[in-house]
Design brief:
Number of strands of chain B: 8
CATH class of the largest domain in chain B: Alpha Beta
CATH topology of the largest domain in chain B: Rossmann fold
Oligomer: heterodimer
Helix content of chain B: 25-40%
Number of domains of chain A: 2
Distance between the termini of chain A: 42 Å
Radius of gyration of chain B: 21 Å
CATH superfamily of the largest domain in chain B: Thiamin diphosphate (ThDP)-binding fold, Pyr/PP domains
Order of helices and strands of chain B: HHEHHEHEHEEEHHEHEHHH
Largest sheet of chain A: 7 strands, mixed
Strand content of chain A: 15-25%
Strand order of the largest sheet of chain B: 2-1-3-4-8-7
Largest interface: A-B, 45 and 54 residues
CATH topology of the largest domain in chain A: Rossmann fold
Strand content of chain B: 5-15%
CATH superfamily of the largest domain in chain A: Thiamin diphosphate (ThDP)-binding fold, Pyr/PP domains
Order of helices and strands of chain A: EHEHEHEHHEHEHEEEEHEEHEHEHH
Radius of gyration of chain A: 20 Å
Shape of chain B: globular
Number of helices of chain A: 12
Structural class of chain A: alpha/beta
Strand order of the largest sheet of chain A: 3-2-4-5-7-6-12
Distance between the termini of chain B: 34 Å
Structural class of chain B: alpha/beta
Helix content of chain A: 25-40%
CATH architecture of the largest domain in chain A: 3-Layer(aba) Sandwich
């Protein structure tokens, strides 16, 4: 095992899969000579040449669609969006084509493609660059939606996504690229994490916190604080929003009897609402309190740092929600 | 690696990349960007005869006739409530898809719009499977899941009919990209209407095909109306092929009445795609005799205009050509009777087929 960054883990995953399968290629803005806007594709051009690492001009609709067409005839494209905010100008290709071609063709054509890149708010980049769009994609049958929170999950899940025969929307945490985690050594055999399997990031008996991507880290920090108050949180990371591992999530809630769902997206029709539905549907008899949700405020992201922090879920917001679910008074 | 012709990869710093064949970008050009065939844009004399033979023309005429009879049968079934949803007929435009696809080999790819019955048939799908699909039956080309607008056939390399106007252009560029990536020598045809030329997906697909020199032939079936809106109210310049110039891309433009002419001119572009991996943007001028879809009575155009175009019916023209070439009346009658029997059989097949019964199996591939 080695401790490596999330960025390096993604790079390893793509490098290994490209070594393994000549049909895999990467296309996107600045992925080649620039080594990626976030340096995730660092060094891949030198290794795989312009044939397989393709710098695209600013035309997301165009190159996302080229990926779909190439996938239909047997290639395995990795389409990098510089950020998922820009995927909105390509959403026709993802939703109307990638997600539907297997169905529309009656199973004759399938689309093994990965759309990947950073998503969720970074730091002070304003409302157009600070969106968590996973709920958009998780809404669509025919897609898989993966959101790793750690370097280990990033590597194992990206490798699985590249090998998957379906379109996978793979949203990386924009603020997680420098985060580190233990990952099996490169070359120590295939390290694959199955898509659709949740992971318990911290075990606990009093309450279940469900979160994905960077909110897993917020929940782990909150769990540490709460442990000092004698409250043991179980932090469950679905890792994949579609398909959702309802079984692991509900097993945890049946054990703890309480649940807080934390997401960095907006509250209305956010994915956490679906998770809350699943929890109440399957855990009604086990619940000792209403399911809580912690989300960003229902506003476009402001620029000023103090306002931006106020909008997004913070550790103290999670702590407060947990205490509400335990019918404990507010702190202090 | 045989498709590299002229496409030299260059880095942003200007040096030639080590793998000269790839790098999809253009060669560095200093002054003028060549636009092959850019002179060839005047609409041809519609009376100009393209030399052909009975052996070449008769099968093309048969395909066009079968498509027309299939479309007529669809219209009838639609009016009887046996076909639902949207139904866009290609009657009047048959020479374009039939002529263009006749220029291909079976391995080549075709991508089409929602007006796709003719294209699927010309690429080799059976009238039985197409009509059964329109009827929403289990035996349909795509198991009753796609319907009129979404025909696909992996056996014939027909990559689909698409309902979001222009959004399929990048998909066609993607199939062409795959051919260049593999060096498999295939060409891709992408059909679209002139109405698609104003949307972003089209613009981006064309720009990338030109930049990366993809073996793609873009065929604008200009039928004069974007649904109910005539050319002069939808395009600042009423010649879609002119967009090629801005991309340093080959172009062509001609009338689509003569199926053999369509075949010859598209073949030139297909050859260019195969040999030098260069895309071509082509406008074929045509006309649909029916409304945009079955719900459209076509009140935005005059009866005289429609009648004028019907005098240029590509089927009438090809039939007369066959007579002029000396095809015997008996042989022509036999061909037409054969088509009639084929479509009657296809209608019966569609009517008798079991209803579609599975909508869950083809969402996620296991």
């Amino acid at each position: 095992m080695a401790v490596i960054s999330y960025r390096e883990a993604l790079n390893q995953a793509m490098r290994e899969e490209m070594e393994r399968d000549p049909n895999v290629f990467i296309m996107g803005e600045e992925v080649g000579y620039y080594n990626g806007a976030y340096k995730v594709t660092q060094g891949l051009l030198q290794r795989f040449s312009e044939r397989r690492i393709i710098d695209a001009p600013i035309a997301e609709m165009g190159f996302a669609g080229i990926g779909v067409g190439a996938a239909m005839v047997g290639l395995r494209p990795i389409i990098e969006f510089m950020t998922f905010n820009f995927s909105l100008v390509a959403i026709d290709q993802i939703v109307n084509n990638a997600a539907k071609i297997y169905q529309m063709s009656g199973g004759q054509f399938h689309v093994p493609i990965v759309f990947r890149g950073p998503g969720g708010p970074a730091v002070q980049v304003g409302s157009q660059h600070s969106q968590a769009l996973e709920s958009y994609y998780a809404h669509v049958p025919g897609l898989k939606v993966v959101m790793p929170s750690t370097a280990s999950d990033a590597k194992g899940l990206l490798k699985s996504a590249i090998r998957d025969d379906n379109p996978v929307v793979f949203i990386e945490g924009e603020t997680l690229y420098g985060s580190t985690w233990e990952v099996p050594d490169a070359g120590a055999g295939d390290f694959l994490i199955p898509i659709g399997k949740a992971d318990i990031k911290r075990e606990g008996s009093d309450i279940t916190l469900i979160a994905w991507s960077k909110m897993v880290w917020t929940c782990l920090d909150a769990a540490k604080l709460l442990a000092a108050q004698g409250i043991e949180c179980e932090v469950v990371d679905p890792r994949t929003l579609r398909p959702l591992d309802v079984e692991t999530l509900t097993a945890s809630v049946k054990k703890t009897g309480r649940c807080v769902i934390v997401e960095v997206g907006w509250p209305v029709a956010g994915f956490g609402a679906e998770v809350a539905y699943q929890i109440q549907r399957h855990c009604m008899d086990a619940l000792d309190a209403p399911v809580e949700r912690v989300t960003s405020d229902d506003v476009p992201m402001p620029y000023a740092k103090n306002l931006e922090d106020e909008v997004q879920p913070q550790v103290h917001d999670v702590v407060a929600a947990v205490r509400r679910a335990l019918y404990l008074p507010e702190e202090g | 690696m045989k498709l590299c012709g002229g496409a030299i990869g260059t880095s942003r710093h200007g040096q030639v990349a080590s793998q000269a064949c790839f790098g999809y970008g253009r060669a560095v050009v200093s002054a003028s960007i060549p636009t092959p065939d850019s002179v060839r844009v005047e609409p041809d004399n519609p009376h100009e005869a393209v030399e052909t033979t009975i052996e070449e023309l008769a099968p093309l005429y048969r395909q066009m006739l079968a498509i027309r009879r299939m479309e007529e049968a669809s219209a009838k079934a639609y009016s009887q409530g046996k076909i639902g949803g949207f139904l866009h007929l290609i009657i009047g435009q048959e020479a374009v898809c039939v002529g263009a696809i006749a220029a291909l080999k079976p391995d080549d790819y075709v991508v089409a719009t929602y007006r796709d019955h003719g294209h699927a048939y010309a690429k080799g799908s059976s009238s039985r499977a197409i009509l059964a699909e329109l009827y929403g039956k289990k035996t349909g080309l795509v198991r009753g899941l796609g319907g009129s607008m979404h025909l696909f056939d992996s056996k014939t390399n027909f990559l689909g009919g698409y309902g979001i106007v222009g959004g399929h252009t990048p998909i066609a560029a993607g199939a062409a990209f795959a051919s260049k990536y593999r060096g498999d020598g295939r060409a891709t045809l992408c059909f679209f209407g002139e109405g698609a030329s104003t949307i972003g997906g089209f613009a981006e697909g064309v720009a990338l095909a030109a930049l990366w020199k993809l073996p793609l032939v873009l065929i604008c079936e200009n039928n004069q109306y974007s649904m109910g809106t005539p050319l002069y109210r939808s395009l600042a310049v009423e010649d879609v092929s002119l967009r090629a110039i801005a991309h340093g891309m080959a172009r062509d433009r001609f009338d689509g009445d003569d199926v053999v002419k369509v075949k010859r001119r598209i073949a030139e572009a297909v050859e260019r795609a195969r040999t030098t991996s260069e895309p071509t943007l082509i406008e074929v001028v045509t006309y649909r005799f029916r409304g945009h879809s079955m719900s459209d009575p076509g009140l935005y155009r005059t009866k005289d205009e429609v009648e004028e175009w019907k005098r240029r019916d590509p089927l009438t023209r090809s039939r007369q050509q066959l007579v002029d070439l000396g095809m015997e009346g008996g042989a022509l009658d036999a061909l037409e009777a054969d088509v009639k029997a084929e479509i009657e059989d296809a209608v019966k097949f569609a009517e008798d087929s079991p209803a579609a019964d599975d909508y869950r199996s083809y969402v996620i591939k296991e």
